[in-house]
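In line with agreed milestones, the collection of sequences with tokenised folds has grown. A representative record is reproduced below.
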Amino acid sequence: MIRLDIFSDPVCPWCFVGKANLDRALADHPDHPFAIQWHPFQLNPDMPAEGVDKRAYLESKFGGKAQVDAVHERLREVARKAGAALDPDKPRRIPNTLNAHRLIHWAGVEGRQNEVVAALFSAYWTEGRDIGDRAVLSAIAAECGMDSETTARLLASDADASDIQARDADARHKGVSAVPTFLIAQKYVVSGAQPPELWGDVIKDLSAR
């Protein structure tokens, strides 16, 4: 197997699209060599713990309602082509994602990481759930076969928070500046929501080697 390390944030729409494109390629190549590991990268590491109103934040960032509407329409078009059920107007808040990344880490320990990552993307971008809320995260853990009570206890503590922050900082130190970023075999970097055709070519090339 070949390691495919993915640096991502559940509130990043391009990460959702990038995952959808990768998933399509993996489905078309079921004998792919990848062993996938997800790694933390917070788009907004200084976000307040309670999050902020998403629309107000984006209108301030992009310069108004019309600009945000244009960005959202482009996202819808790209998501449709990728087969990602993404509605950029569905989420009402931008959460701090530290706890979501903690959940992804614990899911990895249980061998449920891909499932939990998919559930977080769907919860936020399709259902509009607040994935900064501990109760929501505990429910998502349960939906993916994890123990919700254990998850709730861990989320109520500081367990692994400093480790997640250190890993995020290390990724930035090593050159990750945007997500999604994919690291193949700990050597080759692919950035952005690449189309499934590119991943198909990568898989074919790796298999030929």
Q: What stands out?
A: The chain has one domain: 2-208. The chain has a mean pLDDT of 97. The chain is about 55% helix and 10% strand.
